[in-house]
């Protein structure tokens, strides 16, 4: 079996890999959207609106799509794929099958102006093709000579890495996005068993995260300092995953600190609110610590000081109020890299205000406003949002330990704890320096030459 890549081989976004079983039969793993500079580079080789580059425009040899998790950079090209005639099973975990329709509704609303009816048809088709699978059990993909097993990746709710075994015993593993250990709410990634070929993400292949055990304290310290000058703390966060982790930790800080009990936490993202509701309904997938909090009658994702903003009018009112009066509060809004969504309005209104603190808790891809704020904000620079030049007087913080991606140490450990050595590895989903650094470590530790796009 061979693997070719239609995304995330050069940069971090647009994950899409094709597993060629034979000339007539292929499986696709993820079908994600390009973002930031990846999007610009992608535009050169991908026709507008195409799900794959020209030689692969015929969807008929695709016998299935495996979705590792519901992030947009792993599923965002699904509408184009369905429109191109893809008509085969879509395999994913049960939780991903619940999250995916919400992600798609959002993607269709944001990126396409087609009639509602054709969008509804696409959603209906997607729902019909979904085949939810339980974690850890093998699924025969007959008539293909392969079987599939999804395993806990610990990245977001429902995230999995995919093991695909050929009848001849050859095993290819697609890591999807591998989470960190000790992530709030979620179980740790299941250790890798073995792989003849491992397609491994490398987002943080060149660094190790801050100590995660002190992460909640650091979050508390940054917010407390920020609150002292009566400004708001803006946290750009992805709607799925990070938002729920943050709510979970903020609830814990509030529960254990009496002087925090008056803190207002504003969740301003209708989409994040829908995902949060799904996270609440899937409590059986939480880790033990989170389940214990429920047993203690706490509501980690639905606490008293949490204010959920519903309408756009209310959103505008809050932005206006904070701009005029300032008010110590925490605002969590999407999108995580500030490329769109309601966070942009907060940033436009509050970046020029020195009382504001912006707290980055996630990876900021090259070319995104988030990366620019992170890079130029501390030097008193500016950022362009909605074609407007916004000067940055706010303080900018980055809390590394919050990443939803495994760091270099954890990626190496993922390869190391197998029952048999990994035979070949190809690095994807990382910027070049990250891939180079991880490849050097892999060579030193396993004597293995990692393959990656240079
Ligand atoms: Zn992801």
Structure characteristics:
alpha/beta; Metallo-beta-lactamase, Chain A; binds zinc ion; Rossmann fold; globular; 454 residues; single chain; seven-stranded mixed beta sheet; 20% strand; 14 helices
Task: Please describe what this structure looks like.
The protein has 454 residues and is α/β, with parallel strands linked by helices. The protein folds into 2 domains: 2-207 and 404-452, Ribonuclease Z/Hydroxyacylglutathione hydrolase-like (Metallo-beta-lactamase, Chain A, 4-Layer Sandwich), CATH 3.60.15; 212-402, Rossmann fold (3-Layer(aba) Sandwich). It contains 14 helices and 21 strands. The strands form 4 sheets. It has a 7-stranded mixed sheet with strand order 7-8-9-10-11-20-21, with helices on one face. A hairpin with a 7-residue loop joins strand 8 (146-152) and strand 9 (160-166). The mean pLDDT is 90. The structure holds zinc ion. Zinc ion (ZN) is lined by residues 69, 71, 74, 155, 177.
Short recap of the structure:
This protein is an alpha/beta fold and 454 residues long. It has 14 helices and 21 strands.
General form: globular
CATH architecture label of the largest domain:
4-Layer Sandwich
Which class best fits the helix and strand makeup?
alpha/beta
User: How many H/I helical runs?
Assistant: 14
Trace the largest sheet across and list its strands.
Answer: 7-8-9-10-11-20-21
Low-confidence stretches: none
Show the helix and strand layout:
Elements lengths: L1 E4 L11 E6 L2 E5 L6 H10 L16 E5 L5 H4 L2 H6 L6 E4 H18 L4 H14 E4 L5 E2 L5 E7 L7 E7 L4 E4 L22 E5 L13 H14 L3 E5 L5 H15 L7 E4 L2 H12 L6 H8 L10 E3 L3 H14 L3 E5 L9 H8 L6 E4 L8 H8 L5 E4 L2 E4 L3 E4 L9 H9 L8 E4 L3 H15 L4 E2 L2
Parallel strand pairs: 3-4, 4-5, 5-6, 10-11, 11-20, 12-15, 12-16, 13-14, 13-15, 16-19, 20-21
Antiparallel strand pairs: 1-2, 2-3, 7-8, 8-9, 9-10, 17-18
Helix pairs in contact: 4-5, 4-8, 10-11
Zinc ion binds next to loops.
């Amino acid at each position: 079996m061979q693997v070719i890549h239609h995304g995330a081989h050069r940069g971090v976004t647009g994950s899409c890999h094709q597993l060629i079983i034979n000339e007539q039969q292929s499986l696709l793993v993820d079908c994600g959207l390009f973002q930031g500079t990846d999007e610009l580079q992608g535009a050169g080789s991908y026709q507008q609106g195409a799900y794959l580059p020209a030689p692969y425009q015929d969807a008929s040899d695709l016998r299935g799509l495996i979705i590792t998790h519901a992030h947009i950079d792993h599923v965002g090209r699904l509408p184009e794929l369905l429109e191109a005639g893809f008509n085969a099973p879509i395999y994913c975990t049960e939780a991903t099958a619940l999250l995916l329709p919400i992600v798609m509704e959002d993607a269709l609303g944001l990126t396409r102006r087609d009639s509602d009816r054709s969008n509804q048809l696409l959603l209906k088709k997607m729902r019909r093709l979904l085949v939810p699978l339980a974690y850890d059990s093998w699924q025969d993909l007959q008539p293909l000579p392969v079987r599939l097993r999804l395993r806990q990746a610990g990245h977001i709710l429902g995230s999995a890495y995919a093991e695909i075994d050929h009848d001849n015993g050859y095993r290819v593993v697609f890591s999807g996005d591998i989470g960190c250990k000790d992530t709030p709410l979620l179980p740790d990634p299941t250790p890798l068993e073995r792989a003849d070929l491992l397609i491994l993400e490398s987002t943080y292949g060149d660094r190790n995260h801050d100590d995660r055990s002190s992460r909640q304290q650091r979050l508390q310290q940054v917010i407390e300092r920020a609150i002292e000058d009566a400004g708001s703390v803006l946290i750009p966060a992805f709607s799925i995953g990070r938002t729920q982790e943050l709510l979970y930790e903020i609830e814990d800080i509030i529960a254990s600190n009496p002087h925090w009990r008056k803190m207002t936490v504003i969740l301003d993202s209708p989409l994040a609110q829908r995902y949060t509701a799904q996270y609440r309904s899937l409590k059986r997938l939480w880790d033990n610590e989170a389940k214990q909090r429920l047993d203690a009658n706490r509501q980690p994702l639905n606490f008293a000081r949490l204010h959920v903003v519903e309408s756009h009018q209310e959103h505008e009112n809050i932005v206006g109020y904070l701009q005029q009066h300032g008010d110590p509060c925490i605002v969590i809004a999407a999108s995580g890299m500030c490329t769109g969504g309601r966070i942009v309005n907060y940033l436009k209104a509050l970046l020029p205000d020195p009382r504001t603190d912006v707290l980055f808790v996630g990876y900021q891809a090259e070319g995104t406003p988030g990366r620019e704020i992170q890079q130029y904000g501390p030097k008193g620079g500016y950022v362009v949002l909605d074609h407007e030049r916004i000067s940055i007087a706010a303080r900018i913080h980055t809390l590394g330990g919050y990443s939803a991606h495994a760091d270099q140490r954890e990626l190496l450990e993922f390869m190391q704890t197998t029952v048999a050595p990994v035979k070949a590895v190809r690095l994807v989903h990382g910027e070049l320096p990250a891939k180079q650094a991880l490849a050097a470590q892999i060579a030193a530790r396993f004597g293995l030459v990692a393959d990656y796009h240079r």
